[in-house]
């Protein structure tokens, strides 16, 4: 196992496209790090540079303290687990796991191969399936066979590139748990690429958020959620996404399109000398005023709004509330919104209410 250190890593493709722009990241030995970001942000490129499938244009990559920029993929001792698992359908589980060892042509005796396969199968709880063919395995078991092949090679780290993106939602959930469980059990350094924020939030010790080839923030899932460093991270992490609304300072209040919020010391400190700010409010930080009142909760800011549509999901009820932003404010906001290319400015609030809320489509609540 090994630490992976990226220092100012750059990638320019032959056509001149600058896909990765100075990424520095320290991945500790045994750590599980997720690379996440929208399509085209450079996360696969970064992973492929680590594994050696793509040249590094500039910067330094170290694995286990040693510079590996110039090393061939096979000499880096990393194991890439692909989306389709790349299992051989005509080979049994045991033969599939043993495959990389047989490729080394005589480096291992039959007894050594048997022992390595036994160890991997035990670690991955595949002992009872060793004689089966991949077609007779569940998706989760196939994933484990693919990991088994990485284990027998004594890989220093696992690299996953969107391994679950082809699966249906239910299987994806199961496999996610499985990967987390296996990684914790083996304690192998893991780098995992996804654009799925549920995977990002649930799997990793730390999450690295990329945008247009640049690292935005590297932090624990909780820290990303609670303390995003910019609008992009704030809007990318969280589902439904954080609401962004304009806030205008007016005396001792912050005027939102639908409510006036008294300025607390904390708000005042965060706003500083600005007159106009973008206010981020998580959907779950709203609640149904009627329910709050019934349960004796007071405080907070109360407002009335017309509910456009509701979605009842069993555990939550999402309500969509349109709001208007004055034209003059909109112009100034677009300047503040450089982080998001204008995408952050929404015209409706998404509000997550308790599932027993009685708010329905078309209500004034
Ligand atoms: P996705 O989630 O869609 O797979 P990604 O974040 O993994 O996206 P990459 O595959 O790393 O994105 O690609 C990053 C950028 O580099 C994209 O804009 C892509 O078009 C570009 N790119 C990838 N490969 C090449 C190439 N061989 N030549 C030129 N540009 C490339």
UniProtKB/TrEMBL annotation:
Cellular component annotations (GO), alphabetically ordered: ATP-binding cassette (ABC) transporter complex, substrate-binding subunit-containing
Residue span, ABC transporter domain: 4-237
Molecular functions per Gene Ontology: ABC-type transporter activity; ATP binding; ATP hydrolysis activity
Presence of the UniProt keyword Cytoplasm in the record: no
Superkingdom of source: Bacteria
GO biological process, alphabetically ordered: carbohydrate transport
Keyword line: ATP-binding, Cell membrane, Membrane, Nucleotide-binding, Translocase, Transport
Cited InterPro entries: AAA+_ATPase, ABC_transporter-like_ATP-bd, ABC_transporter-like_CS, ABC_transpr_MalK-like, ABC_transpr_MalK/UgpC-like, Mo/tungstate-bd_C_term_dom, OB_MalK-like, P-loop_NTPase
rRNA processing among keywords: no
PANTHER family: MALTODEXTRIN IMPORT ATP-BINDING PROTEIN MSMX, TREHALOSE IMPORT ATP-BINDING PROTEIN SUGC
Record-given protein name: ABC transporter ATP-binding protein
Provenance organism: Cellulomonas algicola
